[in-house]
Specification:
Elements lengths: L1 H10 L5 H14 L5 H7 L5 H14 L2 H10 L5 H13 L5 H7 L5 H14 L5 H7 L5 H14 L5 H6 L6 H14 L4 H7 L5 H11 L2 E3 L2 E2 L7 H10 L5 H14 L5 H7 L6 H11 L5 H8 L5
Helix pairs in contact: 1-2, 2-4, 3-4, 4-5, 4-6, 5-6, 6-8, 7-8, 8-10, 9-10, 10-12, 12-14, 13-14, 14-16, 15-16, 16-18, 17-18
Length: 303
């Protein structure tokens, strides 16, 4: 075995990229602690695939030195390397959590971003407070990763911080926060209803989308709430002064699929800005009572 390891370690320093890659793969399979230092060195290899396999290898060996090498890979310029480093770190188990939470304050934004991703995949509620704080990070990618992580953990404590992200300048951050609120579920309902009355139309839009289970603009997510108060709040939003809010409320009612919204959606067909969305939502609800009005609307009558 010693001779095999010696050959592999020699191959790990070969000038040929493919040779180094295969050596790193094999060493990852073996997971021999005596190869740790060489594999940590390979985490800085010029070829991205070698770095990725070396990261997987050190995670199997474990220990503080291996963890530091993986956190270094969080800042790798290649996305595949970063993502594999996150997964490898998570596989090391709950003992790495404290170091991950420290990494949420790292000066490098990619390290902070991927530390948040790793914490979310671990799903440990002990990371919630640190992730809530990360929602105020100066970098949008970090905020988005923190929001996604909070959605994975689904602790109701995160709801206020996620709702605040509806005011963020980044659309990706706002949409990620909305998705996280959907995953948290019913503890999000009242804050989202309150947000339908916010003075900022962007906040109102994202609140309506979240209540309808939409993870991005008009992308179907999951229907997760049928509370009467949600339907009532969205019906009221059909009269919002902003067209975008009315559109999102119309679509959300279709997503929820509650027949109590039929009369309001029939009336909404008179609003040229949302007419096609109202027709689509009535179709999603599938109540035959709406059929005459929908047929008239499609013919251009009664609208």
């Amino acid at each position: 075995m010693a001779d095999v390891l010696e050959d592999l370690l020699e191959a790990l320093e070969d000038v040929d990229d493919a040779t180094r890659e295969e050596a790193a793969k094999t060493l990852a399979d073996l997971g021999d602690p005596t190869t740790l230092d060489a594999l940590i060195g390979a985490c800085s290899d010029d070829f991205w695939s070698v770095r990725a396999h070396a990261g997987c290898a050190v995670s199997k060996i474990g220990g503080a030195k291996a963890l530091e090498a993986l956190i270094g890979l969080f800042n790798d310029p290649i996305m595949e390397v970063r993502d594999q480093a996150v997964d490898a770190t998570v596989r090391m188990g709950p003992g790495v959590l404290d170091r991950l939470l420290t990494s949420l304050k790292d000066e490098r934004w990619r390290v902070r971003e991927h530390a948040a991703k790793a914490a979310g995949k671990m799903g440990d509620a002990r990371s919630v407070d640190a992730l809530i704080l990360a929602c105020r990070d100066r970098d949008g990618a970090v905020k988005s990763a923190a929001a996604e992580a909070l959605g994975r953990i689904a602790d109701p404590k995160a709801v206020p911080a996620l709702v605040k992200l509806f005011r963020d300048s980044s659309k990706i951050v706002r949409e990620t926060a909305g998705t996280a609120l959907v995953y948290i579920g019913h503890p999000s309902v009242d804050p989202l209803i309150d947000s339908l009355k916010d003075k900022d139309f962007v906040v109102r839009c994202h609140a309506a989308r979240a209540l309808g289970g939409m993870t991005t603009d008009y992308q179907i997510g999951k229907t997760w709430v049928r509370d009467a108060k949600v339907v009532d709040a969205l019906i009221a939003a059909l009269k919002d002064s902003d067209r975008a809010v009315r559109e999102d409320a119309t679509i959300a009612l279709g997503m929820i699929g509650d027949s109590r919204a039929i009369d309001a959606l029939i009336d909404a067909m008179k609003d040229g800005a949302v007419k096609r969305h109202a027709i689509a939502s009535l179709g999603m609800i599938g109540d035959s009572r709406a059929l005459p009005a929908v047929l008239d609307a499609l013919k251009g009558k009664g609208i």
